[in-house]
Structures are given as structure tokens and as C-alpha cells.
Amino acid sequence: MRIGITASGGGHTGYAVSLAQRLVGEAEMIFYVPEGDVWSRSKVERYGDVIEIRKARGPNESFLKLLTGMTKAFIQSMRRVGDIDVFVSTGSNHSVPPAIISKIKGTPIINIESSVRFTRPSSSAKYLSYISDLTVLQWEEQKKILPKGVFFGPLYEKPEYEIRDEGFIMVTAGTYGFKELFDVIARTGLENIVLQTGRVDKNLYKNMRGWIIFDFDPEINRWIARASLVISHLGKTVIDAALTYKKPVIIVPNPEWRLTAGAEDGRILAEKLGVCYEDRLDPKIMLERIEECRKIKPKNFDDGAEKLAKYILERFS
Fold first, then answer.
1. What does the mean pLDDT of the chain come to?
2. Is 9 left (phi over 0), alpha (psi -120 to 50) or beta?
3. Closest CA to 232 of 283, 92, 240
4. For site-directed labelling of 217, which of 22, 42, 105, 315 has its Cα 20 to 30 A away?
């Protein structure tokens, strides 16, 4: 059985990994990653072949870039998406061209909605739902935004590292980073910080005493596994920190990401997971929240990735 899976960067790649961990040894997997996305490639190449297809645009980039990027992505998809038994979209505009090409070829489509969406669907999940054989929901509440979807449960990665508490706070905001959040953490005066900056210049924080700073680590989960507390933007890191590694979490939404999930989604997700939410970027408030939230343990949930993997193997083998 051959399964095509998009690993479209950030949390979308995390969903691909979650599913691949449950399918390894049971199916042949081909992953479609954005051109030049070294992190996504490093995360999925251990599970199968990797093919690069252009991602039309990132968060907050122009509509013109989306149009020009989509044209090239469709051309690449026509050439690079081969014969597979089922196609799995993990979301983002990057998933749309290969999904449509797969549908034209008669391949069944599985469409996964993001774990951080509650108030409105993501654009990719919404539009792909019209051509999909199955739209996967990670929370029962998502029935309100995608009524034809089927609830499976949250997709989170299996732990790959020993879970322990080494006393440091892990601060991360994915590929693009979150400078305003990093600046607030710097102003708290805290020393025992591990900071993953993404595309924010890591040299801005090189003089912070007692900080470990890096822009990229394909094995970021090894840091999460050893953290005392994780502070992150509204993304899949929150899911894996809470559900995979059982860490206390503070969700801090990035107000600049207008096209993604918003503040209300963050509040709902925090309540679902049993973790903290804070949208006030103030060092005094952040210090208070850190002390409060260190003691709060997340809730437990059934394994949605395992359930989805079983469905795929039984339905399409």
C-alpha cells in the first residue's frame, strides 16, 4: 500500500509525523514537503521517500504571491505526484495542489483539519472538504465548523525522548518565530531559558545570561521532553508538549498571524488541554503566569493518530 502525505511545515509536518509513526512497517509512505524546508524533510525522511513541491505562500504574505506560487505548485504536482492508493492532506495551501492532482487521478483524499481551529475552519480544510472522501476532525467541537467531518481525536507524536524535568523553560514559536514574545521573556530577567527563535535573528538575544539559543533544531522535542514548562504560540508544539510529553504549557497567540487561528481559538484549546493561556505581552504578568502554570498538568486524550492509521489501513488496503 502506498500513501502520499503532505508535510507542509510547522504543525502540518507534525501531523504527518504523528500518522507516520503509526503506519511505519504497515505501508509505503511518500511525503510531499515545501521546497527548501530542511526541518520538514529531516522529520519525515526516516519514514519514507520525500518529494519537494513549492509552497505558494507563508503566513501574511500577499495574495499575488499565492496566485503565482499556486501556478508553479500545480505544475510541479502534475509531474511529481505519482501513483498512490490514498492521499492525506495535513493542511496549509501547500497541500491543495497535490490533493487536487491526486483527485483528478482518481485517488481517495483524506483531509485533516488543524488541532487549533475552533471558531472557523482553515481555508485548506474547508475547500478540500468538497473533494475529500474523509475530513478528519481532532475535536468534537469542530463539527460546528466542518459538519461533514468525522471526529478521530487529537493527532500527537509518540514520545521519542525520556520525559524528565531539568528546570529550564522552553520558549518556541515555530518556523517564523515571535519576536514580541521573546522580547517579553527577555525583560522578565529569567535566566534558565531555552529559546528557539525560528526566523527571528537569534543574535538579538546572545547577551542573555543563562540562555541557550538556537534558530532551528530538527530534534526540538528533546528539549521539550526535558523542560519544566513550555511557552509557545498557538501551534502544534502546544499539542505535543501537553499530550506527548505531559508538560505544563502557556499558549501565547501571535496577533500578527491574521490568517491563522486567533485568540478565541487559543482560549478554547487551552481549556480543552487543561493548560494556560495568556495574550497580555507584559513581563510582570508573564512572570506571574509562569509561577502559576508550572504546577498545572495537562489532561489526557485518546490517540487520534492511531485511530486514523487503523482506518486508512482497513479502508484502503
1. 93
2. left
3. 240
4. 22
Q: What is the rounded distance in angstroms from the CA atom of residue 146 to the CA atom of residue 117?
A: 10
Question: Which CATH code is given to the segment(s) 2-154+303-316?
Answer: 3.40.50.2000
Domain range annotation of the chain: 2-154+303-316, 169-293
How many CB atoms lie under 10 A from the CB of residue 28? 14
Q: What are residue 276's DSSP bridge partners?
A: 250
- H/E stretch holding 158 reads none
- Please name the residues in contact with 85: beta carbons below 8 A apart, sequence gap of 6 or more: 1, 2, 3, 107, 108, 316, 317
48-90 tens-digit pLDDT: 999 999 998 765 555 566 677 799 999 999 999 999 999 999 9
How many C-alpha atoms does 147 have within 13 Å on its Cβ side?
0
Whole-angstrom Cα distance, residue 68 to residue 188? 43
Architecture of the 169-293 domain: 3-Layer(aba) Sandwich (3.40)
Nearest to 82 by CA among 109, 101, 96: 101
pLDDT at 218: 78
d(CA 200, CA 176): 7
Domains 2-154+303-316 and 169-293 share a fold: yes
Q: Write the pLDDT tens digit of every residue in 10-38.
A: 889 999 999 999 999 999 999 999 999 98
Alpha helices in the chain (DSSP H): 10-23, 38-44, 63-80, 96-104, 123-128, 179-187, 221-226, 236-239, 263-273, 283-293, 304-316
**Paired residues of 5 in beta bridges:** 31, 88
- Residues 230-287: tens digit of each pLDDT: 999 988 899 999 999 999 999 999 887 654 567 899 999 999 999 999 999 999 999 9
The three-point CA angle 235-154-152 to 5° equals 140
